[in-house]
Design goal:
Layout: H1 3-19, H2 30-43, E1 46-48, H3 60-70, E2 84-86, H4 95-108, H5 111-115, E3 120-123, H6 134-142, E4 144-148, E5 162-164, E6 182-186, H7 195-201, E7 206-208, H8 215-223, E8 225-231, H9 240-245, E9 249-254, E10 274-277, H10 288-300, H11 303-317, H12 331-341
Helix pairs in contact: 4-6
This protein binds 2-acetamido-2-deoxy-beta-D-glucopyranose (4 copies).
One 2-acetamido-2-deoxy-beta-D-glucopyranose binds at residues 106-107, 110, 113.
Length: 354
């Protein structure tokens, strides 16, 4: 399929999803998303400083983002045309070296001082912690941080920072139209062992996995379950991209508001996932499964409503997929899109860029 066909198919599906009930669109701004995305492809320019040495990243998503960016047409050798500046460094860079790096940018180039780093961005899976060093303070507080989901609470600044969609299952077979035999699927590690998990194990409607499964079994389980359970904070949420792609509506169990969902500026996560506040992770006593069933029934007892949300999931899923060679609207392009939304920074002395 040519990129153009891909694009027009996408257009069509977006058009259909917004011309029918607007309520079920997974997008925050369904009308402006496509035109703005096109504008990004045409005009977004990034200037990358030269990496100090070959870079080593701690996760595949970071590496993919980096290699995709360097090989993209977003890069410009002309800093005067750039909307944003990329500060490349390896995952394990000691804070002392990082401070020196920022100091070099400050003294060797005129760009840092214009915004004290606000039109700069960097990739760091773990995010930067607190540090009183001036260089690191400006980098952390002003520059856009791209880190891994879920983030450490202290290393993520909402509205400024971005999280990378977790790397989904690379095999990624097309969504199958299996009948949904199970109400819920708990993937191995996605929810910590607890009385809730024990209870769900005894419940025929839930599929609780206590050993990692092979890819085919995993995909089948995603396809035949209405909901996939995750625990934010303690569990492994990396499967959330797979769940969304396979139309297994994620149920995110959390004891606090979540501000670092991937593509948070683009996707209406409340249309894609169910967030269940769970003060007591043990399930609040002995009827956690009953409570969960109640919440799911109350929210999506209606089959039509469930199918709408599942459709939103599948539409959103294409944006969470990483490709070795970036494809339109995939995780790489959507991460770029979030940067594009952040390009308007105050410049103390600015040169006009288109
Ligand atoms: C870089 O991009 C070109 C075409 O734009 C593509 O053929 C090549 O495979 C890409 N290389 C990598 C490492 O992604
Ligand atoms: C940026 O400002 C600092 C003072 O905060 C100064 O030392 C440095 O030389 C300036 N950089 C440039 C390129 O002028
Ligand atoms: C796919 O799923 C929909 C909704 O559940 C159903 O109406 C349709 O008949 C299914 N199609 C096939 C080919 O199984
Ligand atoms: C939370 O769960 C634990 C273990 O089941 C229980 O002992 C405790 O009373 C619960 N706390 C609340 C506030 O429900």
């Amino acid at each position: 399929m040519s990129p153009n066909t891909h694009l027009s198919l996408f257009f069509l599906s977006l058009f259909l999803s917004i011309s029918l009930p607007v309520l079920s669109s997974p997008y925050i701004s369904p009308l402006t998303f496509i035109p703005n995305y096109q504008k990004m492809l045409k005009s977004f320019k990034i200037f990358s400083y030269t990496p100090p040495q070959p870079l080593v990243f701690s996760t595949p998503a970071e590496s993919l983002f980096f290699s995709s960016l360097l090989n993209s047409s977003f890069l410009t050798p002309d800093p005067d045309r750039a909307h944003l500046f990329f500060v490349p460094f390896s995952s394990a860079t000691p804070t002392r070296s990082l401070s020196r790096l920022v100091n070099e940018l400050r003294t060797d180039f005129p760009y840092w001082n214009r915004t004290l780093g606000a039109d700069h961005f960097y990739v760091s899976c773990d995010g930067l912690g607190f540090n009183s060093d001036r260089n690191l303070v400006e980098l952390k507080k002003n520059s856009v941080q791209i880190s891994c989901f879920p983030t450490q609470r202290s290393s993520f600044i909402p509205h400024k920072d971005i999280t990378l969609p977790p790397l989904a299952d690379p095999h990624h077979a097309p969504v199958k139209n299996e009948s949904k035999n199970y109400l819920g699927y708990v993937k191995y590690g996605a929810v910590k062992e607890s009385s809730l998990v024990n209870e769900l194990s005894d419940d025929q409607d839930f599929l609780v996995e206590r050993q990692p499964s092979d890819v085919l079994t995993y995909e089948w389980r995603l396809s035949v379950s209405k909901f996939c359970l995750f625990e934010y904070g303690d569990g492994d949420v990396s499967g959330i991209s797979d769940a969304v792609s396979f139309g297994c509506v994620p149920v995110v169990i959390t004891d606090r508001p979540i501000q670092d969902m991937p593509l948070m500026d683009v996707l209406r996560w409340q249309e894609i996932a169910v967030f269940v506040g769970w003060k007591n992770k043990s399930g609040g006593g002995s009827d956690g499964a009953k409570q969960l069933r109640h919440v799911l029934g109350r929210t999506y007892g209606d089959e039509k409503r469930y199918e709408e949300v599942r459709g939103s999931c599948v539409t959103a899923g294409q944006h969470l997929v990483w490709n070795e060679e970036p494809q339109p609207f995939d995780a790489f392009h959507m991460t770029m899109y979030q940067l594009w939304l952040r390009r308007h920074t105050i410049r103390y002395a600015r040169t006009e860029v288109a």
